[in-house]
TrEMBL record:
Function (record text): Phototransformation of protochlorophyllide (Pchlide) to chlorophyllide (Chlide).
Lineage, highest ranks first: Eukaryota, Viridiplantae, Streptophyta, Embryophyta, Tracheophyta
Enzyme class, spelled out: oxidoreductase
Gene Ontology cellular component list: chloroplast
Enzyme Commission number(s): 1.3.1.33
Annotated source species: Miscanthus lutarioriparius
Entry's family note: Belongs to the short-chain dehydrogenases/reductases (SDR) family. POR subfamily.
Top-level taxon of origin: Eukaryota
GO biological process, one term: chlorophyll biosynthetic process
Pathway: Porphyrin-containing compound metabolism; chlorophyll biosynthesis
Main location (coarse class): plastid
Reaction catalysed by this enzyme: chlorophyllide a + NADP(+) = protochlorophyllide a + NADPH + H(+)
Protein name: NADPH-protochlorophyllide oxidoreductase
Length: 315
């Protein structure tokens, strides 16, 4: 039978390119979990995806109710769930003021981490009950949250501190909107959320890999300088960033190539190892990359897990 993969944020960029790459193999049915149904359906059509190769379902990660509703809806499809890809993200580098999810959390961490945390926790039992040969939960990471790299050292650097802001609810009412308790900074909030993504993947691996047989993985797909992720950046940045990445840092990767990389993490029989953060070298060969000290701190991962459980109502 075909595998079924859920991809969040499949209406553009990496998520769409991955959905297309998987659909084209003829071996996958993709559930595109998107906040904007019409945009997703237009994007799938424009990408030339066969209409039988995907199903679009509504998911707004900025609302925990929407996440719970999505889980109910996806179960009603009566399809096995073989792979879940947590890909959607918001990046607000120029925001002067924080914005908030329906549950009051600062938006970047609320969507990128907490919404996905609840989704992944809820769908773990579905993955476990699938009979697919290799079941996977993939959480897209980034180099920018990884302070052992050049890109990860561009200020403001990711830093979760002692997680006091998160423990306080991350809502700006009685607690900071930043995980470390500091002043709002949209670029840092995004990087912090990516550290959370990478810590969460490893904590899932430690807690559930043996018990469930699910492969947990994260990845840095390369710098996809053309995606919508940079839509909120100043125009000059948007103009110069792609050529800068192409010719100076040489970290540039096209959406199509990045989609193929993520599709590999979804389906390649050689990438079944769990607890890995995948990266690709210049020849586009995958390798197991090292994470920064903070992004591989097991105590922090445990603490993050426990606080996140409370915030999303699982504990
Ligand atoms: P895009 O902005 O193109 O895609 C982000 C997707 O997330 C969109 O489909 C967007 O939906 C969706 N999304 C945003 N908010 C929500 C929400 N509340 N609920 C549901 N979906 C939502 O960016 P990319 O493709 O670049 O980013 C994809 C992933 O890749 C992210 O995890 C990012 O951190 C990661 N990444 C990107 C890099 C890059 O260089 N671009 C580098 C490293 C990692 P909509 O279409 O409705 O806006």
């Amino acid at each position: 039978r075909k595998g079924t993969a859920i991809i969040t944020g499949a209406s553009s960029g990496l998520g769409l390119a991955t959905a297309k790459a998987l659909a084209e193999t003829g071996k996958w049915h993709v559930i595109m979990a998107c906040r904007d149904f019409l945009k997703a359906s237009r994007a799938a059509k424009a990408a030339g995806m066969d209409k039988d190769s995907f199903t679009i379902m509504h998911l707004d990660l900025a609302s925990l109710d929407s996440v719970r509703q999505f889980v109910k809806n996806v179960r009603q499809l009566d399809m096995p769930i073989d792979v879940v890809v947590c890909n959607a993200a918001v990046y607000q580098p120029t925001a002067k003021e924080p914005s908030h999810t329906a549950d009051g959390f600062e938006m970047s961490v609320g969507v990128n981490h907490l919404g996905h945390f609840l989704l992944a926790r809820e769908l773990l039992s579905d993955l476990q009950s699938s009979d697919y040969p290799s079941k996977r939960l993939i959480i897209v990471g980034s180099i920018t949250g990884n302070t052992n790299t050049l890109a990860g050292n561009v200020p403001p650097k990711a830093n979760l501190g002692d997680l006091r802001g998160l423990a306080g609810g991350l809502n700006g009412i009685g607690s900071s909107v930043m995980i470390d308790g500091g002043e709002f900074d949209g670029a840092k909030a995004y990087k912090d959320s990516k550290v959370c993504n990478m810590l969460t993947m490893q904590e899932f691996h430690r807690r559930y890999h043996e018990e469930t047989g699910v492969t947990f993985a994260s990845l840095y797909p390369g710098c996809i300088a053309t995606t919508g992720l940079f839509r909120e950046h100043i125009p000059l940045f948007r103009l110069l960033f792609p050529p800068f990445q192409k010719y100076i840092t040489k970290g540039y990767v096209s959406e199509e190539e990045a989609g193929k990389r993520l599709a590999q993490v979804v389906s390649d029989p050689s990438l079944t190892k769990s607890g890995v953060y995948w990266s690709w070298n210049k020849n586009s060969a995958s390798f197991e990359n090292q994470l920064s000290e903070e992004a591989s701190d097991a105590d922090k991962a445990k603490k993050l897990w426990e606080i996140s459980e409370k915030l999303v109502g699982l504990a």
